[in-house]
Structures are given as structure tokens and as C-alpha cells.
Amino acid sequence: xxxxxxxLERIFMTFLVITLILxxxxxxxxxxxxxxxxIKNIEMAIKNVIAPDRNTVPVxxxxxxxxxxxxxxxxxxxxxxxxxKLPQVYLxxxxxxxxxxxxxxxxxxxxNGDFLEIDARFYKSPxxxxxxxxxxxxxxxxxxxxxxxxxxEKKLGIVRFYEKL
Length: 165
Known about the structure:
Blueprint: H1 2-31, H2 33-50, H3 62-71, E1 73-80, E2 86-93, E3 96-101, E4 105-111, E5 115-119, E6 126-134, E7 146-150, E8 153-158
Antiparallel strand pairs: 1-4, 1-6, 2-3, 2-5, 5-8, 6-7
Keywords: Membrane, Transmembrane, Transmembrane helix
């Protein structure tokens, strides 16, 4: 019986050491921005394999979808990651400040051709932003897309819509 407990203890300790090594390795990888973005891409790919219908348009919103395509108006929700709330970080649309991240999340209405930027000049550490939701008619970005801003203005790009069906 004593030999069995020694083997069990040895297996448990080996498992514990391997787990600790893996945890430290993952933490080191997550500090590097390139590795972090690659891990996020792998995570998104796995999520799409597991639940591919998650980003599809529900049948009940087809009328709204058609209306958004013909009107060329839409919306975006941009989330400041890591549960940060920074009122000195701004979303800029066509050269004007339209919102700040005082709540950690910004919802903005956009038109075709709008130019979007994130102004984080007042915060010198790297910040991560994610597009958590957007109109299905917008083709410039995808839900889950992330941006890193490091104490400067980050140009997100020009809003482009899918052409009329």
C-alpha cells in the first residue's frame, strides 16, 4: 500500500510541476504582443469551428439588414479591453472627437466613407481595443477584430459598406 501512495504522490507532483511550467510559459507568451495576437487568432478560429453560426444574421433582423444596406448607415461597438475605463482616450470620426472610453465601451453611428481613429496620446501604456459588434452591412472590419494603440493616434480606417444586393 505504501508503494502505491508513493507512486500516486510522484504522479501528482509531476502533474503539478508540468502545470506550473505551462502556466508560466503562457504568461510569458501573453506579454508579447505578436504572440498574443496569434493566440487570439487561434482562439477565434476555434470559436468559429465550434459555433460557426454565432456571427450570422438572425432571420428576424433581415428587414433591418436590408434597410441598413440601402441607407448606408450603420453602427459599431468598440470595447477597451482589460476592463479599463479611460475618459482621456477618444474615438475620432472624420477629425472630430465623438466619444471617449469613460465607460470602457463606445457605440458610434457611422456612414459610408467615415474615417475612424482612436486617440490614446494621453495614455502612454499599450491599450487593446476590440470591435465587439457592428452592423452587418459594414465590410471594413469584423466582430472580434482587435487593435493595439501605444500612446498615439491609431487610424482604424474608412468605413465601407457592402454594395446593394
